[in-house]
Amino acid sequence: TTMQKSYKLENLCCAHCAANMEHAIKKINGIQSAAVVFMTQKLILEADEENFQAVLEEVKKAIRKVEPDCKIIEP
To answer: What is the pTM of this model?
Structure first.
């Protein structure tokens, strides 16, 4: 089963970084789909439900690699 969640991103500086992040996130094991939308500063993730939290941690690492100041705002 997959689960989709949307997160607000803080300090996403440019569309180029957003594209790089999306590319890196899509390579993570367990990710079904990912979109980083620069215009709305949002991250939309679809991943395996049973290990969603672990996948999210990998996503955070990938984001930090591209943009060290960028943070996921968890609800």
So the answer is: 0.93
Mean pLDDT for the stretch of residues 1-17: 96
7 phi and psi angles, rounded to 5 deg: -130, 145
Give the whole-angstrom CA distance, residue 33 versus residue 27.
Answer: 10
CA distance 17 to 67: 7
CA distance 38 to 48: 24
Residues 62 and 28 sit within 8 Å (Cβ to Cβ): yes
Q: Are 25 and 19 in contact (CB under 8 A)?
A: no
Q: What is the DSSP string of 51-68?
A: THHHHHHHHHHHHHHH-T
| SS3 of residue 19 by DSSP | helix
